Amino acid sequence: MQLMTFFTQHPWFHTWIAALVAVLASLLAYRIGIALLLRVTRKAPTLHSMVDYSRSAARWAIPLMAVQAVWQAAPDSLPAIDGARHLTGLLIIATLTWLLLRMVAGLLEGVLKAHPADDPDNFHARTIATQARVLTRSAMVIIGIIGAAMMLLTFPGARQVGTSLLASAGLFGIVAGLATKPLFSNLVAGLQIALTQPIRIDDVLVVEGEWGRVHEITGSYVVLRIWDDRNLILPLTYFIEKPFYNWTRDSARLLGSVFFYVDYTMPIADLRTAVEGIVKAAPQWDGRFFNLVVTDTTERCMQVRVLCTAANSDLAFDLRCLIREKMIDYMQQHHPQSLPRLRFEGTADVSAAPAGAGAAGLSPAPGAGFGGLQPQPAN
Predict the structure, then answer these.
(1) What is the end-to-end Cα distance of the chain in Å, rounded?
(2) pLDDT at position 118, please?
(3) Where along the chain do its domains lie?
(4) Any bridge partners for residue 222, and if so which?
(5) Coarse DSSP helix, strand, coil percentages of the chain, rounded to the nearest 5 percent
């Protein structure tokens, strides 16, 4: 009799006991299941990373679903049971959204580990990394929006507001379109970049007059790491709407060029031999190609161009600097008279000679340099 009175005065007692048992059982099942999944997926790095990343969210989602099952089995006449069901449902949606986000993040991490981009010729790895980053971040945005919308739809008032907004969709569509244009334009641009690959992670670009590497591609902007460690932030739509240079679009290998200006007296054959020795001894050269040609002439000098190949942009830059230094040193030592010079030629004019030039031992000489004067021995 006293037990019946207790249950009458405390109708939640047996429900709380059932909920506690469900939580403990679900936590035990979680630990066993996670341990088995981590062991089974050990030889599959991507799946293993997804399981590992989702552990924290699953630790909350599984007990909440067990508690919700207890609430659903409880009688509807139980005081405040509807509020408990609604609150637990909101928490389940939030944790499941969190779980999906963590699984997507684990998928990204697994793909990046399976395709490391630290090799010199990392063209394929950079392609996979770019697609994985952009697509997973776009998926995260969509998952977050859907999760928030599902939480709002659990409130009857939110449904009525949504219905009224749809009824006045004309004005609302214009306002919403203007407000969300940057968000959706960047989302679409991100999908275009992931599919068409105009840029990739670690690509070498020349944008707005700046040379740098693609350091990060987010859901709304691209971070370009400039050569002097500055960061140039550009929206995703920039790379869809405006032109730019991509030095590593088809391959990480590059063809570098070095230009020199030399006098017409420079023997080109000797210069070509010197370049061959410098390039073949350089560790940055990948062995594919090099040459030296005269690309232009002016009334004063010749323009000489050296082409050389390297495995990536960093090595190409170092190789070009090395060739410049070695070639300058070579010309200074072996052909200093063939460095660029400025010539002057004049005619002799005795009347224009300065006063006392004869006494100083100077006299005009045909074919002499500037002013037609050269030193003469004194009597």
Answers:
(1) 149
(2) 64
(3) 2-196, 204-246, 254-338
(4) 217, 234
(5) 60, 15, 25
